[in-house]
Amino acid sequence: METPALPNFTSSTQVFSSSSPSSPRIFRNIARRLASSSQALEFFDYIRSNSPSQDLKSLSFTFQAIFELAGREPDPQNTLLELYRTSKERNIPLTVKGATLLVRCFGRAERVDEALAVVDELDPSLKSTHFYNVVVDLLFRSGRIVEALNMLDEMLQPGAHCPPNDITGGVIFAALSRMEWFGRSISDEEIFGLVSKLLDHGVFPDTFKLTQLITKLCRNKKIGRAWDVLHDVMKADGTVKAVSCNALLTWLGRDGDFERMKKLMTEMIEMDIQPNVVTFGILLNHMCKSWRVDEALEVFEKMKGGSYGLFVEPNVITYNTLIDGLCKVGKQEEGLTLMDQMRSENKCMPNTVTYNCLSDGFCKAGEIERAQDLFDQMNKERVFPDVITLATLVGGMCRHGRINSAVQFFNEMRSAGLKGDALTFNILIKALCNVNNIDKAMELFEKMKGVTDGLSVEPDLITYNTLIDGLCKVGKQEEGLTLMDQMRSENKCMPDTVTYNCLIDGFCKAGTIERAQGIFDQMNKERVFPDVITLTTLVGGMCRHGRINSAAQFFDEMRSEGLKGKHVTFTTLIKAFCSVYNIDKAMELFNQMSKDGCSPDAIVPQMQLFIIH
């Protein structure tokens, strides 16, 4: 294939003699129009060898164009590195744009050392704030934190040649928001120091960055620092919007700091940072969660009445928050009144969440008929129930002894297409197990797996543990063992300490202590760690069946491995030894109780009776 002929560069040299101030850029513009960086390099060599004088400025601009062309070609990093070396060999100074291009390209290729070499080579008088921003951003992203902070410190010095600007702020606030700099934690002093210096230079975070920084500080349990940062921006006349204040209010609420929440709300209004419905929603939500419902209602009335200097119209979330708060303190009648008010005053229609809050309130108060009336009203208004509605009503019925009604309601909802979730099934299964109706519980379990109607819901660990416990309580521990094997094979659901405790308890109560000990050995083999319930169950089982010395030995072994008994464990053993008149061993255990942090007071009268007799 024939190589394309190069353009005729003969007339280009005449431009060098021009006195026009734009002449240094003319060769750059010519080079930019060439087909490739290699062709531009040949052009550079031509004008350099044919120019009457060495105009370094023109040569620098021309080489900048070569860099630009190379940056758009395949494998730009290696090409640019070679061209950079060529420019150094030929003593061609870098332009700031050329240096910026090289830094960015080397940064993308993770060749940070080459990028820093470019920084060192560039004439300090040519360096600009934009150039520093590019380098600082690269250093932060590459984990070169110390170098980034050093360069930033240069920019922040009084009278610096390259002072920070808003883009610098964007780079720094983004880095601060990451909170962890490649494993290096940011200290409070560093954050506060950087923010203060940037504010002194009139550099403020935008709303997104400020909100992000506040959130990150709060997540790292530095709410005080988040408060200081926000107020420093306010004092420096930076732009602060409600969303940033809302972020801080959320975390103050989680911390229960209502004093500062109210103070911040007041400051927002004074500084014309208008609180919105979300702002009030945060305050109301945390007040209700802290049982301060009366205070929340006062704030709600002020919000609607314009007492804060503005009128904020509540939305369905606001009403739901208050209705839920009222129901949680037993004021569900007031919750109903508020639901009527939301319709009449604000033309705000109740949704599924509204009805769920009220249903939960009436169910917990034992007023199941009222909860069912609400469900009927919900359907009448074409507000569709969800799995929470179902679980709430089913749970309420079960808690108040209406298990058959709960099962019937549950089946009706499944027929209507609302199949329920694992929580709903678990509520029903537990209720049936509690009344020893294990056959009905197992039938429901089969329905849960979709065996009967194809509407499957995957059983979870709670499902299996509830059923295994139920089986063991009616003497069907062998079936419980089979179910444990099934949970592994069918659902890839691994047994936990509770699973094993249920089985151990079942075998102990059946008097098959060897089987219980076998389950315990299997538990250890599978690295499922026993707890104090495991210990107490086995000790109690052994003692009830005359294996008191074995129980004491097992107890000592567990203590040596770091598993200390509770009051009931000691009491069981002490009573057992007293019953066989081994008072010395009983006293030894009695003395050990205090050392292990258990109060021995309750067992004293019983021990005295044994000693007297």
UniProtKB/TrEMBL annotation:
Q: Where are the PPR repeats?
A: 128-162, 241-275, 276-310, 315-349, 351-385, 386-420, 421-451, 460-494, 496-530, 531-565, 566-600
Gene Ontology molecular-function annotations: mRNA binding
Query: According to the lineage, what is the superkingdom?
Result: Eukaryota
Q: Where is this region: Disordered?
A: 1-22
Q: Where is the composition biased (Low complexity)?
A: 9-22
Q: Which PANTHER family would you find in this protein's record? A: PENTACOTRIPEPTIDE-REPEAT REGION OF PRORP DOMAIN-CONTAINING PROTEIN (PTHR47938:SF46), RESPIRATORY COMPLEX I CHAPERONE (CIA84), PUTATIVE (AFU_ORTHOLOGUE AFUA_2G06020)-RELATED (PTHR47938)
Cite the NCBIfam families for this sequence: PPR
The entry assigns this protein to a family as follows: Belongs to the PPR family. P subfamily.
Q: What is this protein called?
A: Pentatricopeptide repeat-containing protein
